[in-house]
Every structure is written in structure tokens, then in C-alpha cells.
Write a structure and sequence with these properties.
Largest sheet: 8 strands, mixed
CATH class: Alpha Beta
Structural class: alpha/beta
Shape: globular
Number of strands: 8
Order of helices and strands: EHEEHEHEHEHEE
Distance between the termini: 35 Å
Length: about 220
């Protein structure tokens, strides 16, 4: 049976690369994005379905799930990749920016996971992969800067750790991973890593026959929360 994956924030950067590599490995991919006109040309030659999706909008997530149900009875992999950075210092107390970042990076994955759970439970080997960042690790927090982003990723890691134990009985593995600093719209051209390197751990978690559960990973190895 063909494996099926759902990826959010799929039209560029790491999300786009994950879609391409999974499709090249035989997956049917549903690529969530806020504007279908932004769908990459490369998707046209692969088994990738560009799908309208705004993870901050409950109605959009529900509509995505309804449309998915018309085309798939299950999914094997959910990759919560959609994310935003924010620029303000936490001490600026810009609540509008903090809410925007948290809605996208933390509540978005929760809402997506909730909507996808019925599909994941129908897989014999389901995986949820949350794209996080080492900037959310507790040891890095005193460095400061990008406070809303850091808090959102710390929260996402907590969600990962707790959910992994609660879903284990359903044979659903849940992990977070850090793609490292790579050349994307968010990472910028100064980043030392390639987008392929950034996607590698997510691809491994999606395809390897044996993977951990409830871990925070970077370069296929566990790192500290």
C-alpha cells in the first residue's frame, strides 16, 4: 500500500524539500499551503497534491481534513513544518507578534494533529514529526533574542514529549527535530547548511523502519530538550 504524508508550510524551504524527497521515494504527498498559486512547478511531475491550508485558521484546517478524507482513507506521516520567526525582543512585550508566532508555531501543530489523528490511527506505523529548533532548547534560552520564536519551539517540544506517551498505544510515534541553520527564506543566505541537509532528519523519521519516540533530534541524533 502506498504511504501517504501530509506536510504543512509546503510551498518553499524545508517543507518543499520534504515534499519532493518523499514523493521521489514513492509517497503520495498532500502539500499544505496558504496560497495555491505559490505551489512549486516541481510538484507537477510528482504525486504531490497542493492543498489550501492555513494552520492558524480552524475552519481552514477542518476544510483541509474534509477534502483529504475524499482522497485518502488514512495517512502515515504528518509533518508540522509551517512556521514564522518574529523579530521583536521579548522585553518589547509586543503581544500581537507573540500571539501570531504562537498561533502559527504552537497552536497550529496542535490543531493539525487533532484533525489528522483519525487518519493516523488507521495506519499501522504512523509518525508525527514536528519541525522545531535548537533555539527552543532550555539551555539556549538565556542567550535571548527572538523570544516569541524560542517560546513557541519550547512549547512545541513539550507538546511532542507529552503527546508521544499518550499516542504510543495507538502505534503513533511523535518526535521533534531541529533542521539546523540552513539556507531558506527564514534562515537566509548566510546560513551554512543546505535545504537538503535541513530536510534530512525529517525524511529519515518519515521513512526509516525503526525510529525513536518522544525525542528531540538533530542530524538523526538525539539532542537535549
Amino acid at each position: 500500500m502506498q504511504k501517504i504524508a501530509v506536510i504543512t508550510g509546503a510551498n518553499r524551504g524545508i517543507g518543499k524539500q520534504i515534499c519532493l524527497e518523499l514523493a521521489q521515494q514513492g509517497f503520495k504527498v498532500f502539500a499544505g499551503m496558504r496560497k495555491l498559486e505559490n505551489s512549486p512547478q516541481e510538484f507537477n511531475d510528482l504525486d504531490i497534491t497542493p492543498s489550501l491550508l492555513d494552520v492558524t485558521d480552524v475552519a481552514s484546517v477542518d476544510a483541509f481534513a474534509t477534502e483529504l478524507g475524499k482522497q485518502a482513507s488514512h495517512i502515515d506521516v504528518l509533518i508540522n513544518n509551517a512556521g514564522v520567526m518574529g523579530t521583536k525582543a521579548l522585553a518589547d512585550f509586543d503581544l500581537e507578534e507573540i500571539r501570531w508566532v504562537m498561533e502559527t508555531n504552537f497552536f497550529g501543530p496542535i490543531q493539525m494533529t487533532k484533525a489528522m489523528i483519525p487518519f493516523l490511527k488507521k495506519s499501522s506505523d504512523a509518525r508525527i514529526i514536528n519541525i522545531s529548533s535548537e533555539m527552543g532548547a532550555f539551555g539556549s534560552l538565556p542567550i535571548g533574542g527572538y523570544g516569541a520564536y524560542r517560546m513557541s519551539k519550547t512549547s512545541l517540544n513539550s507538546f511532542t514529549a507529552i503527546l508521544s506517551s499518550e499516542l504510543e498505544k495507538h502505534n503513533i510515534k511523535v518526535n521533534s527535530m531541529c533542521p539546523t541553520w540552513v539556507k531558506t527564506g527564514m534562515g537566509g543566505d548566510a546560513a551554512p547548511g543546505s535545504v537538503e541537509e535541513g530536510a534530512d532528519t525529517a525524511i529519515w523519521l518519515a521513512t526509516a523502519s525503526a525510529i525513536p519516540n518522544g525525542k528531540f533530534l538533530q542530524k538523526r541524533s538525539e539532542i537535549n530538550w
